[in-house]
Amino acid sequence: MSKRKTIKRLEALTGGFEHGGIVPGIAGQKRAIVAHAGEEVVTRIDPRHRDNMGGGISVTITGNTAAWDGGGFASYHSSPRLENVTINGNIAGAHGGGICCYRESNPILVNVTISGNTAYDNGGGVYCYYNANPSLVNTILWNNMPEEVYFSQYDDSNSVTIAYSDIEGGETMIVTNENGSVIWLGGNIDADPFFVNDAIGDFHLQESSPCIDAGTAFFVWEGDTLINLSPDEYNGDSPDMGAFESPYTIGIDDEQVLPNIFALHRNYPNPFNPETTISYRLPGLSFVNLSIYNITRQLVEILVNEKVQTGYHSVTWNSNNVGSGVYFYKITAGKYSATVK
Questions:
Q1: Could you tell me which residues come within 8 angstroms of residue 94 by beta carbon, excluding any fewer than 6 positions away?
Q2: Amino acid 1: pLDDT
Q3: Hey, how many other C-beta atoms are within 10 angstroms of the C-beta on 286?
Q4: Exposure of 251 by Cβ count < 10 A (0-12 exposed, 13-18 middle, 19+ buried)?
Q5: pTM of the model
Q6: CA pair distance 302, 323, nearest whole angstrom
Q7: Residues 4-21: pLDDT tens digits?
């Protein structure tokens, strides 16, 4: 792993940055933050001051407009790392309302919320161009227009690596234009994150959010440790997805109260051999179909296909009859649908 030069380090101990991003209101400024070749923008929270009781201490990049690309953030031939960052309400005149990655950029996003950004051409959430390779862990991409992730069809191919993240529309809604690959790893969901009030910029999670306890505390990809949290840095069994750790947990005590939203949880254990348990919750009596699919989207096995009562449910899948490989499970319950890898 190459050594990175830090050009910005924001230790947000008493509050966040908002209304204009980290570089607000500078005449002629095209975007909130620019990371150039050989440099790294680091925005993170000191774990000792991370508010686990729902108040939240985070960096916010909001209300910025770029004439061309990268309304909130632009990464050029660099490897920036963002942690506990909210990117919301930014606009790009062309590409990358939230983030624009281009020219061999490899940004790492950990516990980032990207929501409500707009690009007039493509890539409302994240735009990739000319061998860009962002990695997302514990991240929420939701309600960005016109697409959550978009690859340029021109020049060198791109890739995006996604793990333990909530992506609106799931993998199938990432537009690659046949110019790159989506590395869709474990723990991803496609479910309304239930922000407290995104209309006024409050991206904390409601108690009913499927993103609670849905992230990962430790993740290594291609030899790089992307996240390594100690248990005192989050609530519950696992960290939440998104920029804010909530005071809520998903545990045995919660099962004494009936759920008020649909949710499909990540299986445990994962990886597994040969059995794994899949859990879900229903706010009302529903006809449920829970099925396993292989990497080519072929049906492997139907686990549930019947009416199921309100409450918390789990089912165990035994994979002895199938070969080793990557599998997806999908639930459909009324109008609710979610897929996890």
A1: 66, 68, 69, 119, 120, 121
A2: 30
A3: 19
A4: exposed
A5: 0.66
A6: 17
A7: 332 233 322 222 222 223
Whole-angstrom distance, CA of residue 195 vs CA of residue 193: 6
Question: Cα(92)–Cα(71) distance, rounded to whole angstroms?
Answer: 4
Residues contacting 41, CB < 8 A, separation 6+: 6, 7, 8, 33, 35, 73, 78, 80, 81, 82
From the list 16, 28, 112, 105, the residue with the least C-alpha distance to 68 is 28
Q: Are strands 286-294 and 224-228 parallel, antiparallel or unpaired?
A: unpaired
Q: b vs e for 137-165, b when ≥16 Cβ sit within 10 Å of the residue's Cβ?
A: bbbbbbbbeebbbbbbeeeebbbbbbbbb
Residue with tokens 């319950």: 333
Contact, 303 vs 278, CB < 8 A? yes
What is the separation, in whole angstroms, between the first and last Cα of the chain?
28
Q: Report the SS3 class of residue 49.
A: helix
The CA distance from 98 to 284, in Å, is 36
CB 339 within 8 A of CB 329: yes
Q: What is the dihedral of CA 61, 66, 68, 74, to 10 degrees?
A: -30
Cβ-contact 78, 38 below 8 angstroms: yes
